[in-house]
Amino acid sequence: MLEIRHVSKHFGKKLTAVKDVSLQLEAGVVGLIGHNGAGKTTLMQMVATLTQPSSGNILFQGQDIVKKPQAMRSRLGFLPQDFGVYPNLTALEFMQYFAALKGVRDPARIHHLLELVNLHDQAKRQAASFSGGMRRRLGIAQALLNDPDILIVDEPTAGLDPEERLRFRNLISELGFKKLVIMSTHIVSDVESIASQLAIMRKGELIAFETPEQILAQAHGQIWSAEVDAQEYEILRKQVHVLQSQKQGNQVSLRIAHPHQPCASASHAVPSLEEALMAQRYASQELAA
């Protein structure tokens, strides 16, 4: 469906935001993971035809979207990180406005999408009064107006409360059954249960493209739990990668990423996806050193 071939993006002579990224993507949810500044947003902007790559090609169903951007734009839904609403428009008027821009003339489509994102009861309320989560849901609704094949969402859960985040994840998961959803985030828990593939970026480069199961398997035997006293903790934290520490009475409960048993009280722990990614990052840093 979407093929990214050796794409790079340079800003001036000194800044390379994306460096030689290649990906082949089909329907499903793809989690684009990386810290702030890793190149995620720049890559998505190139896929969305908002900016052109300095080199490389992006193909949608075999067509080069750099040369023919309309081939992508007509089949794309996009929710940027900073999604604003017009202060004087109700949710319904907002959707009608974007429907007109996208050439969608079916009123039933608008009402269906407002129901899909659970905003039909708020359709006549001014969108400017919506909570952050409601605005994100309205943003998804407008992105789906043209029934796109590809949906791109950039940091969609930033600022949402836990209930809104869960609702948003469920909606994204359902959309991924039939569409390609590219979801950029640095919050690993947002994609842990819904992504079929994870594309991990660091300093503009794609360092891994794997399933969550593959990443978890690679971390097998590298995550440890331990309880130590405060003195041993101070020694350990200088020698190993402590992922989590919690004081419990006179002891400190630890989660540690290390290829070997870090201390006598340590035992193997089942890693979370975030812990597995951290273990992978530490291992690559040590190899580079």
UniProtKB/TrEMBL annotation:
SMART domains: AAA
Stored SUPFAM superfamilies: P-loop containing nucleoside triphosphate hydrolases
GO molecular function, one term: ATP binding
InterPro entries recorded: AAA+_ATPase, ABC_transporter-like_ATP-bd, ABC_transporter-like_CS, P-loop_NTPase
Top-level taxon of the source organism: Bacteria
UniProtKB keywords: ATP-binding, Cell membrane, Membrane, Nucleotide-binding, Transport
Gene3D superfamilies, alphabetized: P-loop containing nucleotide triphosphate hydrolases
Domain ABC transporter: residue ranges: 2-228
Record PANTHER family: ABC TRANSPORTER, ATP-BINDING PROTEIN
Family: Belongs to the ABC transporter superfamily.
Stated name of the protein: ABC transporter ATP-binding protein
Organism: Undibacterium hunanense
Species lineage: Bacteria, Pseudomonadati, Pseudomonadota, Betaproteobacteria, Burkholderiales
